[in-house]
Amino acid sequence: METIPTEKQLWDEAVAFTRDKSPGSFDQWFYGVQFEGLTDGVLCLRARDEFVREWVDQFFLPTLTDHIRSRTGWSIQVAWTVGGELDHPVIEPPPNRVGEEPNRLNNQARGIVLGGPSTGHTGHSGHAGHTGHTGSGNVQNLATASVLDDAAPWSERRVVRQNMQVVAPPLEGLNPKYTFSNFVIGPSNQLAHAAAIGAAGGGGRRHNPLFLCGGTGLGKTHLVHAVAHRVRAERPSTRIVYVSAEKFLNEFLQALQDQRMTEFRNRYRERCDLLLVDDIQFLASKTQTQEEFFHAFNVLHQADKQIIVTSDKYPQQLERMEERLISRFTWGLVADIQAPELETRVAIVRKKAQIEGIEIADDVLVYIAQSVRSNVRELEGTLIRLAAKASITSRIIDLDFARSEIALSSSARANEASVEDVQRVVCHHFKLKSGDLLSKDRHKSVAFARHVAMYLCRERLKCSLPELGRAFGNRDHTTVMSAVRKVKALRGADPEVRAHLEALERKLGTAD
């Protein structure tokens, strides 16, 4: 029969399990923590000062308590005491130097901020995006902070400013390549890029909240990751929470099930300086989760904590989303990202080739950009596939090779229809002349066919609004936007319009 461990043994097991993930960082902070008991699911700890308590509570306790919970099934509550002497710290401090007072810690070596001004938020170091996993490979950043002058006698100790290292756990779920330096700027994303720079504290007006919207694979997530990387590099003490809306929902449901709502709310309300949420449209129809996000949003916004949200739709187009949330999304700036223009697509492929070390001629870059117009992800994927095939077959990526491979690929088949193809099929369907769609004719039947063609190009080919404006007789992009919205609304409300669209999509071979 398995022996039931004592409370102290459970604690020691949890300490060993947590310390094994990052011994250096663990030891650095647990010099200032003392275990004082575990009774009936209540874990009693003492911290040398408030900053140690906050850091340990933020980055180590979730792993510690989860381990104890997995062994016992208990719902663990933590009771902290701050201050006082630590007779038996979890990690014994290094031997005292000759003449030093007993139990005195070397605060500079521990990297603990004890008071005074600092860069970022004094007393709130670290990242809340990944609670419970302090993994190896922690990033070390230099920060100017106020620490005790260890050279002075105990009775005359004073606060001085000096450089110190703040050790913070890595940011979970972020792509290290998604930085501002790797983001290609063009007319289609210029506003969103500038707004993201401002949100990261890089100059310009800061909008809060910042709502980034656009189709799949156009760079919304890239900008969000870039903000997190920039803030982490420049202000390492900032507590960053990066989460998808789906993960937020799952964490909320798990917290309800485990009766850990206080911990969940603290993470998103009290222990967060920068909240980044991807794909907020996922919360549609999730009424209770929307309610929880609404309150978290309010707390952070009132505290002037930066909030960035991404979506594949404008706020007003989010179906089954509470009006009060939609209203708040528009408080700051709504910045949309359109499909990139040809010049931007060429620059994107060139940048990706540089990052991946792929040698490729300019004419091939242009051909790839002309062939793939849907989104950035598809562009980059096509380049990677060409490079992989060339490596396997020992071929050079020249124009003939690119043409043959792209023609055979599924991505090419999905994008083989062009604007001209759509215009030709629409004219044939509505029995119009080929030039009618480009003319200034405003007759109802011609205008409707033109709007349908614009809608199909926008939805199926992911062409940018300016591109479509030029392709349809040099019309303004706002005209195209109005046409697309009108047809989209009619598709849902008018069976006749829906039948026309479905017939056209079958002819184009692009029906879902």
UniProtKB/TrEMBL annotation:
Name of the protein: Chromosomal replication initiator protein DnaA
Source taxon at top rank: Bacteria
Keywords per UniProt: ATP-binding, Cytoplasm, DNA replication, DNA-binding, Lipid-binding, Nucleotide-binding
Oligomeric form and interacting partners: Oligomerizes as a right-handed, spiral filament on DNA at oriC.
Matches recorded under Pfam families: Bac_DnaA, Bac_DnaA_C
The keyword Cytoplasm appears for this protein: yes
Family (UniProt): Belongs to the DnaA family.
Annotated positions binding ATP: 217, 219-221
PANTHER family assigned to the protein according to its UniProt record, in alphabetical order: CHROMOSOMAL REPLICATION INITIATOR PROTEIN DNAA
Biological function: Plays an essential role in the initiation and regulation of chromosomal replication. ATP-DnaA binds to the origin of replication (oriC) to initiate formation of the DNA replication initiation complex once per cell cycle. Binds the DnaA box (a 9 base pair repeat at the origin) and separates the double-stranded (ds)DNA. Forms a right-handed helical filament on oriC DNA; dsDNA binds to the exterior of the filament while single-stranded (ss)DNA is stabiized in the filament's interior.
Span of domain Chromosomal replication initiator DnaA C-terminal: 418-487
Chain segments carrying region Domain IV, binds dsDNA: 391-512
